[in-house]
Amino acid sequence: MIELEGLTKRYGEKVAVRDLTFTVRPGIVTGFLGPNGAGKSTTMRMILGLDHPTAGDVRIDGTHYDRLQDPLTYIGALLEAKGVHPGRSAYNHLLCLAQSNGIPERRVHEVLDAVGLTAVARKKAKGFSLGMGQRLGIAAALLGDPRILMFDEPVNGLDPEGIHWIRTLMKSLAAQGRTVFVSSHLMSEMALTAEHLVVIGQGRLLADTSMADFIARNSRSYVRVRSPQRELLLDVLHREGSPPCRAGTGRWRWTAGRRSGSGSWRPGGRWCCTS
Ligand SMILES: Nc1ncnc2c1ncn2[C@@H]1O[C@H](COP(=O)(O)OP(=O)(O)OP(=O)(O)O)[C@@H](O)[C@H]1O
């Protein structure tokens, strides 16, 4: 479990993260959604003790990161896939991490196998594709067999096969009862992966809710109509009591109300033109 309480980070005049309070729970994938510059990476760096909060507090299973004994066995993270010495092989990179954290060498073989890098384990990291680099970063995160995993924009720049692999991996880690916290600026990506969603914008918390609830509150359903008989279509709409806006494209969209917070359907749709 990761608990944030009033977490704030200022860089001079700039407030990158403002008073964030939320909890990331085990057994599900929690998405961390926000546009570029929203403060996601800064928040994740503070969780790992790489940046010091200006105010507030963050705890990993009740303890500050810098007080964890063998932190890799509590939390594994992929923040920056390029954080590997280019002249070092995947195997040696992981072995260094393992040896400096009291993790047995057999675990290196296990995580290389888990991420599908066994065949290229002796190759230098500088020859790795972006996808292989991501896999190596994830192998490092898994090395200590931690109960908590955190991934910062893990699908960025990956091909469809790599994206599918990461989605499946995150869900399987959560299904094992682990805490999985993953950031993205893409709602479409989060909707496919996360069960719970924390949304931030300009460093502020905007939502902390289940994915199903977030979609129900923020989505609309609509029917798009195109007709070569524009005038006839307008007449019909007027007769139905749904006066459309004026436009000459011949294309109309019926937005049929939206779901209320309780999930019930709130009527009140309208026609509008699309170009
Ligand atoms: N070391 C720093 N010094 C000054 N400003 C910073 C620093 N790190 C981040 N910022 C600023 O804090 C804000 C939040 O940045 P952050 O990288 O956390 O956002 P993000 O949501 O991760 O964005 P992205 O998706 O682009 O990585 C941005 O305006 C950024 O310019």
Please give a structural write-up.
The protein is α/β, with parallel strands linked by helices. The protein has helices spanning 40-47, 90-100, 106-114, 130-142, 160-175, 187-193, 211-218, 230-239, and strands at residues 2-11, 14-24, 29-33, 55-60, 75-78, 148-152, 179-184, 196-201, 204-210, 220-226, 251-259, 265-266, 270-273. The strands form 3 sheets. It has a 6-stranded mixed β-sheet with strand order 5-6-7-3-8-9, with helices on both faces. Strands 10, 11, 12 and 13 form a 4-stranded antiparallel β-sheet that branches. The chain has a 3-stranded antiparallel β-sheet with strand order 2-1-4, with helices on one face. The radius of gyration is 24 Å and the shape is globular. Adenosine-5'-triphosphate binds at residues 11, 14, 16, 34, 36-42, 185. Adenosine-5'-triphosphate is lined by residues 11, 14, 16, 34, 36-42, 185. InterPro entries: AAA+_ATPase, ABC_transporter-like_ATP-bd, P-loop_NTPase. This is ABC transporter domain-containing protein. Keywords: ATP-binding, Nucleotide-binding, Transport.
Features:
nucleotide-binding; 4-stranded antiparallel β-sheet; binds adenosine-5'-triphosphate; 30% helix; ATP hydrolysis activity; 275 residues; alpha/beta; ABC_transporter-like_ATP-bd; 8 helices; globular
DSSP helical segment count: 8
Largest sheet: 6 strands, mixed
Q: Based on CA inertia axes, which overall geometry fits? A: globular
- Rounded to the nearest angstrom, the radius of gyration is 24 Å
Number of distinct beta strands:
13
Domain ABC transporter: 2-227
Family: Belongs to the ABC transporter superfamily.
InterPro entries: AAA+_ATPase (IPR003593), ABC_transporter-like_ATP-bd (IPR003439), P-loop_NTPase (IPR027417)
Protein name: ABC transporter domain-containing protein
